[in-house]
Design brief:
globular, 28% strand, 5 domains, Immunoglobulin-like, binds 2-acetamido-2-deoxy-beta-D-glucopyranose, Jelly Rolls, 7-stranded mixed sheet, Ig-like_fold
Length: 968
C-alpha cells in the first residue's frame, strides 16, 4: 500500500521537475559509492552521506540547501529543505537512526547559488542495513547455528537442500555467511557473486572473524532450493613459513557458518542454518594454499552439486562435524560484518572516477608524452593477455604477461583424461649464464623462497577442451611456465584476471617526463597488487604480510590514487584488535612476523593511516573513533622512552634497505623520528577534535623531545646530525621545530653536498626516502628533487626499468634487485612507492586543508625545464574532479612563464598558489583567460602577494580557469 503511494508521489515530482537542474551524483553512504556497490549493506544506524553537484558553466557555484528523503516499508523520513552548503559526511541531527536488517531507499536534491529552484531528485537509491549487533545475534542462535567442517577429510564442498513451504511470497531472504579461510557461495547451482574472490578478509580470527551478508531474495524460490559452499584454507589454515622463533597460528581445517533468514509477506519467517543436516565431501580441489597454489583433479567436479535433486553415487558425501568457533569470546573476540569492498577479479575489481587519460582534450600533454610506458593498462578491463609465448624446453610454454601482476590465469587446456598439467608463476626470467651469456629463457623462482606458486590441474578429458581457473590461491608474477600440455598452447589459451580489493581509481598523474610516468605506473600497479583485504608488503613469496611500515609509508600515495577508505578503516580495526593493554602494537597485523611491540617506524601505521584518512576525506569522526587507541600507543612509546631516552630508543629495522654499499645511519635517530612524528600527529588530532588539554600536554612534551633530539643527535663539529648521512639530515629537517634556526642552513647544505658528492644520488632507505622529495621541494631545491627522480643510474627509481637485466613494471624491494640473491628480493614491494604521493602533493601540488583544496604546483627553473615542462593531473575529491595541468612550452614566446589550467568542482573552494620560478623571482603579470588579474601596475585585490616568499595566491570557487604567470 505504502509503495503504491510512493510511486504516485515520484511521478508527480518527475513531471514538475523538467526545467530543474540535474540532480546531485556519485552519492556515498557511509563512504560506499552507491554507483559501484551491488547490494549496498550499511553497518551503522547513522551513516554519513556525501554527494557531488553537477558541473555548471558558471563559476563559483555553491550549494545553498539540500533535502533528503529516506523510506522503508514501515517508516519514512523527510529532512525538508535544510539550508546548508555541506555536501560531505552529512548526518543530520533530526535524521532518525536506521533500523537493523531493513531495506531502505533514499533520494536527495539540492539548491545552488544559481537558482532558487531545486534540482531534480536523484533516483531512489536502494540499500539495506545489516544486523547491527551481529555478534549477539549469532550468539543468541547458539543452539541451532554451528560452525561445520571436518577433521577427518578435507571437506571443502558442503551442500544442503531445503523446502520453502510457505504459500506466502518471499519478502526478503538474507544470509550471513563466514567460511574460513575462504568460501564461495552457490544457490540453486549459481554462484551468488562470481567476481568476488578470496572472501572473507584476513583477520586475527580469534579476535574478529568476518561475516558477509548477501541478499538472496531473487535467488530463493518457493519449494525446494539448494545451497552449496566451497571452502578453502586461506589464511586460516595456511601453510606458514616463519622463523622457528616465531609462532604463527594455523588454526585447523576450514569451517563454515551459515544463517539464512527468510521473511515472507505474511510476516512468517523461516531460517536455514549450518548444522549436521548438511552434507560435505572433498571436491575437485585436492589441496589449496595461498602461497603454494592449488592441486585440482577435475575428474571430481560435479557440475550440479549445488542444484536441487543432485545425486552423486561416486563421491563420499558425509555429515560434517561440529567445529570449534574461531572466536575467543573470553578475549573479547567477535563476529563482525565485513564492512569494506571485497577482493574481486577482473573488470569488477576496478572502477574509475577519472577521465581516460588518453582523452587529451583538456590536457597540455600529447599522445607522445604518454607513449612508452611499459606494462598493462589499468583501463583495459582487468584481464591481461600474454604479450608473448616461448617454448624454452620441449613441453614447456613460458608466457610473458608484460606486467608484474597479482591474480592468476584462466587456461584453455586440451588433453586426455587423467593427465596432469603444472603451472608455475615467477616475477622474472633466469639471467643468462655468466660463462656463455646465454639464457635458457626459463623462469626464476628462487626469490619466491618457500612459496611454490604452482597450480596443478588434472584433466577430465573433455574432447571440447576444458577451462581451468584457480579459486583459493593468488600469485604475484609476470611470467608463467606451463609444463606438460600435450598440445601446443598459444597466447589465446591464456588470460589472467587482475585481483585485488575492489576500489575506484580516483587519481591520474602524467607528465612530459617518461621516467616519472613509468614510476607512477609502477606505483599504481604495486599498490593494487598489495591491496588484498589488507595492505601487504608483497604478493608473491612466502610472506605477503600486513607489514605496518609498508602500510604507513604508502597510505598517502594510495589515497591519492585509489578510493580505499573502507579498506584502511578495516585495517585500523585489525590493528586495534592486536593492541595490548599497555597500548603497544606489532610490526605485522595480523601478528605473524616481526616484533611485538613494534619498531616505531612500523607502529606509526596506526596514527599515520588515521591521519591520512582524515586529511584525504575530511571526516573528523575517523579521528574521534581512533583517538584513544592512538593516544594509548603514543603512551606505550613514551613508557619505553622513559627507560632509554631518545639516544637509545628501541627499534628493530631502522631506515630499512638503503642502497648497497651505503650503510644505515644512526638507528636511534630513525626510531626517534617516528616517535616524534606520532606525538606531533597526536597534537594535530587533539586540536581538531577539541581535546585541548591533550594539545597542551603533548605540545609541552614535544618541545622537550625536540630539544633532546638536537642535543643527542647533533654533531656540532660537522654542523650535521649523527654521522652526516643523508637520512639523518632528512629526518631531522622533516620534523617540525627540531633543527634550530642557527643550524638549519648547515644541515641542509650538508645534505645537498652529500647528494651532489654521490653524483646526485640518494643513500636513503624506506623511511627517509619518503621524506626526501617533499623536503627538497618545500625548501627551494625542487630542481634537485626533479633531477633525482629523473635519474636512471644506480641507485634510482629509474634504474629499476633502465638496466641491462629487467624492466620493472612494479616497485622493487631493493634498489639493486638484479645484483642480489634470492633471500629477500621481491620485484613488487611497494614500500618505496611513497614517492607517488609527491607527484600529487608537490608536482601537481594538490593538498587539503580541512574542506579547502590547495593547488600549489612546484616547477623547475627555466634551465631545467627539459626535465619536466608539462604535467596533467586529475584527482577526484569528495566534491568532484579537480584537474590541474601546466605547461612551460606552449606559446613558448616568453621565458619564465607558465600556463596553468585548473578545474574546481562545484561547491568546492580552492586556493591556487603560484610559486616563483627561480629564487627571488617576482611575478610581473598574472592573467586568467587572457585577462590581466595582476600586474606591477594593476594589483587586483583578489590576488594576494606575499612579498617575502614571492608566492601569489588566488582564491577561487568552482569552474575552469586558465592562468598565465610571468616571472622576472
Ligand atoms: C515442500 O513443502 C510443501 C508444503 O508443505 C509440500 O507440499 C511439498 O511436497 C514439499 N516439497 C518437497 C519436495 O518435500
Ligand atoms: C584530557 O581530557 C580527557 C577527557 O576528559 C582525558 O581522558 C585525558 O586524560 C586528559 N588528558 C590529559 C593530558 O590530562
Ligand atoms: C646535480 O644536480 C645539481 C642541481 O640540479 C646540478 O647542478 C649538477 O650538475 C648535478 N650533478 C650531476 C653530476 O649530475
Ligand atoms: C627494457 O625496455 C627497453 C625499451 O623498450 C628495451 O629496449 C630493453 O630490451 C628492455 N630490457 C629488458 C631486459 O627487457
Amino acid at each position: 500500500m505504502f509503495w503504491l503511494y510512493l510511486t504516485v508521489i515520484c511521478s508527480v515530482v518527475a513531471t514538475s521537475a523538467q526545467q530543474s537542474a540535474p540532480p546531485p551524483f556519485d552519492i556515498r553512504i557511509d563512504h560506499y559509492k552507491v554507483d559501484t556497490t551491488k547490494d549496498l549493506v550499511i553497518n551503522t544506524p547513522r551513516p554519513g552521506l556525501s554527494w557531488k553537484l553537477p558541473i555548471f558553466t558558471e563559476r563559483n557555484v555553491q550549494q545553498t540547501a539540500y533535502q533528503i528523503q529516506i523510506q522503508s516499508d514501515i517508516d519514512k523520513w523527510d529532512s525538508e529543505k535544510i539550508l546548508s552548503s555541506r555536501s560531505t559526511h552529512v548526518s543530520h541531527e533530526n535524521m532518525k537512526d536506521l533500523q537493523s536488517s531493513t531495506h531502505y531507499q533514499i533520494r536527495l536534491r539540492v539548491w545552488t547559488t544559481l537558482s532558487g529552484q531545486a534540482s531534480s531528485w536523484t533516483n531512489w537509491i536502494q540499500f539495506r542495513t545489516s544486523v547491527f549487533n551481529l555478534h549477539e545475534y549469532i550468539m543468541q542462535k547458539n543452539d541451532d547455528v554451528y560452525w561445520i567442517g571436518s577433521t577427518q577429510i578435507y571437506m571443502n564442498e558442503l551442500r544442503k537442500e531445503f523446502n520453502v513451504s510457505s504459500t506466502s511470497p518471499i519478502r526478503t531472504a538474507t544470509v550471513l555467511i563466514s567460511g574460513i579461510g575462504y568460501y564461495e557461495l552457490y544457490v540453486n547451482g549459481q554462484s551468488v557473486d562470481p567476481s568476488r574472490k578470496l572472501d572473507p578478509g584476513w583477520t586475527t580470527y580469534e579476535k574478529r572473524t568476518l561475516m558477509v551478508s548477501y541478499d538472496l531474495t531473487s535467488m530463493i524460490k518457493g519449494g525446494m532450493n539448494a545451497v552449496g559452499v566451497k571452502l578453502g584454507n586461506g589464511w586460516y589454515s595456511q601453510e606458514q613459513y616463519v622463523p622457528p622463533s616465531a609462532s604463527e597460528p594455523n588454526y585447523g581445517p576450514p569451517r563454515l557458518m551459515f544463517a539464512l533468514s527468510i521473511v515472507f509477506v505474511s510476516s512468517e519467517t523461516m531460517s536455514v542454518v549450518s548444522d549436521q543436516t548438511w552434507k560435505g565431501r572433498q571436491g575437485s580441489i585436492v589441496h589449496d594454499s595461498v602461497y603454494n597454489g592449488e592441486i585440482v583433479d577435475s575428474r571430481n567436479d560435479r557440475v550440479d552439486w549445488a542444484k536441487v535433486g543432485f545425486n552423486d553415487s561416486f563421491s563420499l558425501w558425509v555429515t560434517p562435524e561440529i567445529m570449534q568457533s574461531p572466536i575467543n569470546v573470553a578475549a573479547n573476540g567477535q563476529l563482525s560484518l565485513q564492512d569494506m569492498p571485497p577482493i574481486r577479479a577482473g573488470v569488477d575489481a576496478l572502477q574509475f572516477e577519472i577521465d581516460n587519460p588518453l582523452n587529451l582534450e583538456n590536457s597540455y600533454l600529447s599522445k607522445e608524452d604518454l607513449a612508452g610506458i611499459q606494462g598493462g593498462n589499468l583501463h583495459d578491463g582487468g584481464v591481461l593477455k600474454p604479450i608473448s609465448v616461448s617454448t624454452p624446453v620441449l613441453g614447456v610454454h613460458t608466457f610473458d604477461m608484460g606486467q608484474n601482476m597479482v591474480g592468476w590465469c584462466r587456461f584453455h587446456f586440451h588433453g586426455p583424461r587423467g593427465l596432469g598439467i603444472y603451472i608455475r608463476h615467477a616475477e622474472v626470467l633466469a639471467q643468462p649464464v655468466e660463462s656463455t651469456k646465454q639464457s635458457y629463457g626459463g623462469i626464476y623462482t628462487e626469490n619466491l623462497r618457500g612459496a611454490t606458486q604452482t597450480d596443478s590441474y588434472i584433466l577430465r578429458g573433455d574432447p571440447n577442451g576444458e577451462i581451468y581457473e584457480p579459486r583459493f590461491t593468488v600469485h604475484g608474477f609476470r611470467y608463467i611456465s606451463v609444463y606438460g600440455s600435450p598440445v601446443g598452447l598459444s597466447v589465446n589459451d591464456v588470460e589472467c584476471p587482475v585481483v585485488h580489493s575492489q576500489t575506484t581509481v580516483k587519481g591520474h598523474f602524467a607528465s612530459s617526463n617518461p621516467i616519472i610516468n613509468q614510476i607512477q605506473h609502477n606505483v599504481q600497479w604495486g599498490q593494487l597488487g598489495n591491496s588484498m583485504s589488507l595492505p601487504t608488503d608483497c604478493p608473491q613469496r612466502d610472506e605477503r604480510k600486513g607489514w605496518m611500515g609498508d602500510a604507513a609509508l604508502t597510505v598517502n600515495e594510495a589515497l591519492y590514487n585509489f578510493d580505499l577508505i573502507k579498506f584502511y578503516l578495516n585495517f585500523l580495526n585489525l590493528i586495534t584488535d592486536i593492541q595490548l593493554a599497555d597500548g603497544s602494537i606489532a610490526d605485522t597485523v595480523p601478528v605473524t612476523f616481526g616484533g611485538y611491540p613494534s619498531d616505531p617506524n612500523w607502529g606509526t601505521a596506526l596514527p599515520t593511516i588515521t591521519w591520512q584518512l582524515y586529511r584525504h576525506y575530511n571526516d573528523e569522526q575517523i579521528l574521534r573513533d581512533h583517538y584513544s587507541s592512538i593516544r594509548a600507543y603514543v603512551e606505550a612509546l613514551r613508557a619505553g622512552y622513559k627507560n632509554t631516552g631518545l639516544a637509545k630508543l628501541a627499534y628493530h629495522y631502522g631506515d630499512w634497505v638503503p642502497p648497497p654499499p651505503q650503510p644505515m645511519t644512526n638507528v636511534y635517530l630513525i626510531a626517534s623520528f617516528a616517535f616524534m612524528h606520532d606525538v606531533s600527529l597526536l597534537i594535530n588530532m587533539s586540536q581538531i577534535i577539541g581535546f585541548t588539554n591533550d594539545t597542551q600536554a603533548y605540545t609541552g612534551f614535544y618541545t622537550q623531545l625536540a630539544e633532546e633530539f638536537h642535543r643527542v643527535f647533533f654533531t656540532p663539529s660537522g654542523g650535521y646530525y649523527a654521522d652526516g648521512m643523508q637520512a639523518a639530515q632528512i629526518l631531522a629537517l622533516a620534523l617540525p621545530n627540531v633543527v634550530p634556526a642557527s643550524a638549519r642552513d648547515s644541515v641542509f647544505q650538508h645534505l645537498l653536498q652529500d647528494i651532489n658528492a654521490k653524483g646526485n644520488h640518494t643513500s636513503t632507505g624506506i623511511v627517509s626516502t619518503a621524506q626526501l622529495f617533499p623536503l627538497l621541494s618545500d625548501n627551494g631545491q625542487h630542481n634537485l628533487a626533479v633531477q633525482l627522480v629523473s635519474s636512471t643510474t644506480y641507485p634510482s627509481y629509474g634504474y629499476m626499468f633502465n638496466n641491462p637485466y629487467e624492466n620493472a613494471t612494479t616497485m622493487w624491494e631493493l634498489w639493486d634487485a638484479p645484483m642480489e640473491g634470492p633471500g629477500m628480493n621481491s620485484r613488487n614491494h611497494h614500500m618505496f612507492a611513497s614517492i607517488g604521493a609527491w607527484f600529487y602533493s608537490h608536482l601537481a601540488g594538490i593538498d587539503f586543508q580541512s574542506d579547502l583544496i590547495v593547488i600549489h604546483p612546484r616547477m623547475v627553473s627555466e634551465d631545467k625545464k627539459h626535465l619536466l615542462s608539462k604535467i596533467d593531473c586529475q584527482l577526484n575529491t569528495l566534491y568532484g574532479l579537480v584537474h590541474v595541468s601546466y605547461t612551460r612550452d606552449e606559446r613558448n614566446t616568453f621565458a619564465n612563464s607558465i600556463l596553468l589550467r585548473v578545474s574546481i568542482p562545484t561547491n568546492a573552494k580552492a586556493h591556487v598558489v603560484f610559486e616563483p620560478l627561480f629564487p627571488n623571482a617576482k611575478c610581473v603579470l598574472l592573467t586568467e583567460s587572457n585577462k590581466v588579474m595582476w600586474s606591477i601596475t594593476n594589483k587586483d585585490n583578489t590576488v594576494s602577494h606575499d612579498a617575502q616568499t614571492g608566492l601569489m595566491t588566488v582564491q577561487i570557487g568552482s569552474g575552469e580557469y586558465e592562468y598565465q604567470a610571468f616571472w622576472e
